[in-house]
Design goal:
Elements: E1 5-8, E2 11-12, E3 25-29, E4 32-37, H1 39-43, E5 51-54, E6 59-62, E7 64-69, H2 71-77, E8 81-82, H3 89-101, E9 109-114, H4 126-129, E10 138-142, E11 147-150, H5 152-158, E12 171-174, E13 180-185, H6 187-196, H7 202-218, E14 221-229, H8 233-242, E15 249-256, H9 262-271, E16 279-281, E17 284-287, H10 316-328, E18 333-337, H11 340-356, E19 364-367, H12 373-382, E20 385-388, H13 390-396, H14 404-409, H15 411-414, H16 420-425, E21 430-432, H17 443-452, H18 472-477, H19 481-486, E22 504-507, H20 516-519, E23 524-529, E24 532-536
Parallel strand pairs: 1-5, 2-6, 7-14, 8-9, 9-10, 14-15, 15-16, 15-17, 17-18, 18-19, 19-20, 20-21
Antiparallel strand pairs: 1-3, 3-4, 6-22, 10-11, 11-13, 12-13, 22-23, 23-24
Helix pairs in contact: 2-7, 5-6, 7-8, 10-11, 11-12, 13-17
Amino acid sequence: MHPGLVLLNARLLDVVTGELLPQTALAASGGRISALGDDRSVRALAGPATTVIDLRRAVVTPGLVDGHFHPVMGAELAHGLDLSGCATLDEVRDALAREARSLAPGAWLRAHGLDPNVFGGLPVASASIGPVLDDIPALLMLFDAHSVLASPRALELAGIDGPRRFGQSAEIVCDEAGRPTGLLLEEAAFEPVERAAPRPAPDERRSRLAAALREMAASGLTGGHAMDAHGESLSLYAALDDAGDLPLRLRVAPWCRPGADRETVAGLVAQQGTGGRLWRVAGVKLFMDGTIDNGTAWLERPDCHGESTHALWPDPDAFTAVIGALHGAGVPTATHAIGDAAVRHVLDAVREAARMDHRVVRHRIEHVETVPDDTLRRFAELGVIASMQPTHCCEFTRADHTDNWSRRLGEERAARAWRCRDLWDSGATVVLGSDWPVAPCPPLGVMAGSRHRRPARDLTSPPHGPDQALTALQALQGMTLNPARAAGEEHEGGRLAVGYRADLTVFAENPLTTPATDLAQLPVLLTAADGRPTHRDTTL
């Protein structure tokens, strides 16, 4: 059988050693790398239907994998107003005013990427924005995606006129008189407003998702660990896969919300392994806490406002029991844990599960934004993956600790921000991801941020925690070799070797020798998933 794809005149990069392989050509058959060799011998394998590409000395790596993103949610938010470029409240008001003028009467205004730092000393409330949203139903998602600012009209349409109680640690923030301020903390609080807002038709949602995934492929991604398998996510992935329009290999983790009962957990176990050619349900996503920026993280000591004092699960012991049940069924978990107390509890839960059942299950902790020294070594000891998003540190905090995140934590804890290098050096497997749409998705930007620790908008600014910067090879491994390890797929993914998946990314130059501050602009010439090109630059 002739290969489906042949790449010639290439520089093939070994992501284990960081060295170029002696071979210059690669063939892929049946979604796997079927041959590595010189140009002449590999070219001879091609048949009439083989796609043969002369790479002109471009550099081939294993396909880049985003270790944590939300494609379906991101595709929907991307069609709203992006406020992430607004650095002041006046800029936010101006952007909202322009968007409001373009709306039809009664239409909703949707926006995302709102940075709480723009409010300065004012409360994060609709009143602080002013009259620009008068009589307009609006939902403004803050950058952490765990809090929303709703306009008075949106609250009215949702029937929200005061505080409510929820089964998890969510809150409709109210003033002293019991009137909602517009700030809604965590999913359970803003879900009623989401229900009141119009939803796009299924065909439109599928089209938006396909477009977003194509952009990701063009940015260098060939796969990702999708953390938004709820609602219609799985049916959207299936529809794209069935039509041959899924350009990324997706490992999907359905959500287990706080307070889940045994029936819910059993249903999540039953979902494992379902999927199609390029997507598969593998693992469960849980939430131990919220975010530091909105005061819903779980810290060992309160933040400067006396907030972030408890878990998102009303009963943390119930979370431990769920981890034990999933571990006992052989299901890997990925738990959102940002605060030090949350991270410690998840590690304790995994330790207890492993004590009760000795099977090897690769559990993960997502985000790990601030942890003390005594927590670092436990990741490697327990085999827990550290899933990190370094661009959160780059884009949303400041080296001088004047940002909201740092002020809430204080100097001691803010100095322990995103300890990627310490975790790596302690023996943990560190996986890098974007958390898109919370932060930008392009993987080269994620890798660059892990190396330079500076905001992309101003690379001359001081780095935040330069001692936590990864090397160029570590950054590349964090999006190739280590995602494969996290998925238990190191025997078939994350390397250029015969028999491994033909998920490939091709760069104009070597990402290991490209300076960190230039890496985000490195041209991506080709991506292939399952041996099929999903993006091809016009120069090839």
